[in-house]
Amino acid sequence: MKTSSLLLATTRETPADAVVISHQLMLRAGIIRPLAGGLYNWLPLGVRVLRKVEAIIREEMNKAQAQEVLMPVVQPMELWEESGRAEAYGPELLRFKDRHQRDFALGPTHEEIITDLVRKEIRSYKQLPANFYQIQTKFRDEIRPRFGVMRSREFIMKDAYSFHMDKDSLQDTYEEMYDTYNRIFTRLGLDFRPVQADTGSIGGEGSHEFHVLADSGEDDIAFSSDSDYAANIELAEALAPRGERAAATEELTKIETPNKHSIEDVCDFLQLKKKKVAKTLVVKGATEEHPVVALLIRGDHDLNEIKAEKLDLVAEPFEMASDEDIQNAVGCKAGSIGPVNLNIPVIVDRTAAHMADFVCGANEDGFHFTGANWDRDATQTLVADIRNVVKGDPSPCGKGKIEIRRGIEVGHIFQLGNKYSEALNATVLNENSRAQILEMGCYGIGVTRVVAAAIEQNYDDKGIIWPEAIAPFQVCIVPMQMHKSPRVEEAVMALYNELTAKGIEVLLDDRKERPGVMFNDMELIGIPHRIVIGERGLDKGEIEYKHRRDEKSQDIPEADFISFLM
Ligand code: ATP
Ligand code: MG
Ligand code: MG
Ligand code: MG
């Protein structure tokens, strides 16, 4: 392709509202453009990258005998009522009515739809196991879309759903998907870790997340340097052996909320509707004056609605308050707060159905408590089991020390068991011709998020450095004075045609721009291999080559060039 026919929408300025590097570079390199909050246009360069990611995923899924399907983005609410998630999913599910006043939603995930399809189409155990996948647009009305396509409202996901007669078969496919995911992320050129994970709102029995290691990640993951042990920190802490620190935190769990600070008082205090607050908790450091340091808020609640002034903080939304403000207000140090990662001691329950093992705010440096369990009946007490994992602790598996890094969740696999199949009565006839409820697994990859995550790991001060496998073009040719020199033009076109014929994707910069402008653009958009052709090189029978990661270019004899490049 030639730049003259490509929308090369590069800009020099760093957009002010983009805080993470991938978001900045995706805007600057002309990969994406914002449309509205959490909605993005993908420009031609970006689509090329997306299609590469999809192709790798598709190839590996097909190799694992998964079958591609395509399900509608618009989903009838009846199926969500049937599964019981209509209520539980909360406001991330965007609902609307059609002209006949029927209820629909934009699919944030497709368990209900695939289970409905399978219960209608699959009759016999002989047709199982089966694994269906799609690469499809999802919509989640994220409370706080951020970091560009890393957490957008509309995004592309590869989601797969497997169906089985028994748990052994589910386990087999789960392991096969685990291996497939490892192959996919390896081929994508990412530095990633599979980690044990909490099953969260989707529910189920076993689960792993795949995290790309990057400081901008929203999750903390813990892993052992000397073994395969790795877990999302929420789970890591629940599994951690009780060391001295754990003993210290145990005391904490025993502090009871004074009766006079009832839920009513707290709601009053924060002007919250009562039904949204399930429990309150007082932790070490709380004072009479500032009793409430942690709240469990049911459902996906917009914390911006809760004005910080209610906690005697500066009149800004909570997340804007500094640690010091919070410390002054609540009498203890603030920490990182679990699912929404706000810098305030508030626990947000994303689904009312999920009532265990919360992350709660740290109130001492380096502490990050999880596994906080709430007793539904004893209204005022935090029941037990707050544990905490810190860097350097022995690994729960006994080998090595815990390392803690930030991770971007790019994939997630679950053993769902019969959660959905039971609710939707998805049965098939077994060997004895009896109807039997199916076992189910589900497997997701955030396709659009992968693109951002790849940039988080591959960039320098000049721009993106695409991993080879997902680069929009593998090679760029930057000609010197092509428009003035027929000789340069001839050499450039010959090479362009030869490489293209060999199936290499080449971007030829045929603009009448200064070399500096062309070099800068090609570096910004991150093409791995750069070729420069000019009179001077041709005189010497050489072609200038530079890899995007190289400091300096090198001159390669013309005759050897193709074999050098391939
Ligand atoms: P997160 O914890 O980041 O909110 P999730 O656990 O809600 O993600 P899953 O339900 O596991 O997401 O969906 C499968 C994959 O879809 C995730 O691993 C992630 O890569 C991707 N994904 C989820 N939400 C978004 C989003 N808002 N924007 C882009 N990708 C997303
Ligand atoms: Mg989510
Ligand atoms: Mg998650
Ligand atoms: Mg997940």
TrEMBL record:
Similarity comment: family membership: Belongs to the class-II aminoacyl-tRNA synthetase family. ProS type 1 subfamily.
Entry-linked HAMAP family: Pro_tRNA_synth_type1
Taxon lineage: Bacteria, Pseudomonadati, Pseudomonadota, Gammaproteobacteria, Thiotrichales
Main function: Catalyzes the attachment of proline to tRNA(Pro) in a two-step reaction: proline is first activated by ATP to form Pro-AMP and then transferred to the acceptor end of tRNA(Pro). As ProRS can inadvertently accommodate and process non-cognate amino acids such as alanine and cysteine, to avoid such errors it has two additional distinct editing activities against alanine. One activity is designated as 'pretransfer' editing and involves the tRNA(Pro)-independent hydrolysis of activated Ala-AMP.
Entry's Gene Ontology BP terms: prolyl-tRNA aminoacylation
Gene3D superfamilies named in the record: Anticodon-binding domain, Bira Bifunctional Protein, Domain 2, YbaK/aminoacyl-tRNA synthetase-associated domain
Protein name: Proline--tRNA ligase
Keywords associated with the record: Aminoacyl-tRNA synthetase, ATP-binding, Cytoplasm, Ligase, Nucleotide-binding, Protein biosynthesis
Organism: Hydrogenovibrio crunogenus
The keyword Protein biosynthesis is annotated on this UniProt entry: yes
E.C. number: 6.1.1.15
CDD domains: ProRS-INS, ProRS_anticodon_short, ProRS_core_prok
